[in-house]
Predict the structure.
Amino acid sequence: MKKTLGVVCGLAVAVAAVCTAGAWYTGKQLPGVLEHATAQSNLQMQKSFKGLGATARLELVSLEQHLFSSVARYRFTVQNLELGDEPSNLELTLVDRIEHGPFPWQRVKAFKLMPVMAASSTSIEKDATTAEWYAASGDVSPVQGEFSLGYDQSYDGTLRLMPLDIAKDGSSVKFSGFDLGMSGDFEGKRLKLDGSMGTLQVSMVDSETPPLKFDLKGLKLVADLTLTPYDFYEGQADVTLDDSAFTFGDRQVPLTVKGVEQRNTYKVTGDKVDARAAYKVDAITYDGKAVGGGQLVVAVNRFDIPALQAIMAIYEKHMPQLQETAAAGQPPELELNAEEQALMQVQMMQLLAGKPQVAVEDLSFKTANGESRFNLTLDLAKPTSADLPSDQLVRQMIEKLQSSLSLSKPMIGDLAALQASLEGQDEAQVKQAAMAGEMVGQMALYSKLATLKDNDIIANLHYADGQVAFNGQKMTVEEFAALVMSSLGGLQPAGN
């Protein structure tokens, strides 16, 4: 018995010694780890805010160390943040309470027994800037985070935006909170996100504008991204929203949208990137009347990354100027000097040398009685010279183009009848509007720009090697242009 008790006591002492030694080691390593993590965070924020005019910075202000725990304080500042009519600045103090590894108590009590360097609990400090925010969140930190830091400089945890309830001057915000699971590494080479929000209800009352209300439910965010050698992320990033409802205008007309999806895919092969974005809406209703649902899928393939980054750098340099002209209500115009023009020309030729492709894989809309679809694929190529006449330059740049359009006459009728109904027209006028699909079909036949197949208006176009095939008829580019111009001219009302 005494021998057994001695063994147990010996093991306890050994475990305690290991934990103490590990905590001491963590305490010695922690300052360097936090400084490195802060530097990497600033680097990532610099990239994220690039071209937006705003800047963000995280600074380690103090680190109070003990054997088994530490308290770090950070200053987080954002300058020239566009939140309203004028740019504003924001400064927050973040408090990070850190338990040293290898077995932090907050992980042990949650039965997470894998050794880690540290476990941290982060919150925003209450001060004059955040007092109202604290009040709206029930006097708790409105932003909270719990993370574990691995010895391999990885992190894993959850960032929480706490529930809010705000009411002021007739306006209100009710927010159920947002949980964002995050994992990755300090270098930003890996990033996984898994977030969800229950509800967000906003009611805005302004004496100068009609009231606006919106209600969002079931927001989800999922991402799995890996940084490539070109400082370009590849992987998947998806956002979905179950339900949204808006009420706006003097009549307080309701608009509801169900089943919203945005799914983005990025793939890097060598020095080329492929990107695909799919947008989908299951159902839209307006003023209580069903409108329909649709989808848009666009893709770019074989885009040369170095050339693309060089072109984007030129645009980012001129972004403040473009933003100023847009804010003044003027059309933004990119003004390049001779050196920039030459660089842009070189990079565009490099981009075209990779034979990039731009595609609208699917643009579709469906109503109760029909569905219309459109797709287009454009293959580009490098011309022999950038100094060719514009018509020759375009011909050499466009290697191949093909598209198809299928317009549903019943769908056109559904939308025309909906518009007539929303305008308050009587039942006879609504029925007459529902015949709009037949009218469009007859106009398409008359113009020779489309054919009819059952209830669909069909148009197909294929171009390659200077030859056009339009609705099955082969012709030159000049003949196709003449056909389109004459057909459109024939559709113009008399006197125009």
Observations:
- The chain has a mean pLDDT of 84.
- The radius of gyration is 30 Å.
- The longest helix spans residues 2-49.
